[in-house]
Amino acid sequence: MGRHAMTAALAIWAVIQRIGASALSFLGKLSPCQLLCIILALSTIVVTLDRNHWKHVATERQAQVVKLQGELATISAAARKAEADGARISQQLKDKNDEDNRRIAGDANSLRVRGPGKSLCRPAPAPTSDGTRPAKPDAAGPALPPDDSAAVPWGWLVQRSEEHDQLLAEVEAWRTWHDEVLNVWPKNTEAAH
Questions:
Q1: Residue 86 falls within a domain, yes or no?
Q2: 0.70 exceeded by pTM
Q3: Domain count of the fold of the chain
Q4: In the chain, what are the helix, strand and coil shares in percent, each to the nearest 5?
Q5: Residue 65 domain-assigned?
């Protein structure tokens, strides 16, 4: 601490002591009734200041409440809009699904085997002279029944298609795996050793 700062601190301390001593001597000359009036005045001032402080705090809180209510109203409006959009999208999906079902039902009606609009099916190959049916290759599947009651597509054809799709997916998965391994495998095998 510098010399000037020390001098200023001592001067301030002296002023505080003088004021304190003057206040004590002033208060010592007062009657108890006057002291009571001073205490009541000071407490009234403190209560008024405290009340003003809490009024200010209450005003700030009220402003925060109004702001939060505005934000809540905005969020609530956004939620109502999202709910309406969800209902609209749901209705659109339902309408599209209903339209697809009507189209599928129309396509299914055009593939019926019996009744009006029945589809044409080839008859089964005629039996040979000895009463047996001609041999058919495995890939072609069984022949159509002679009474035109087969459904299209045939079960064996669907099964073959599913097997083909599964095998194709497996081959594609292996190719993808192989390409990924080649991408991460060190290009120079001597650098890896």
A1: yes
A2: no
A3: 2
A4: 75, 0, 25
A5: yes
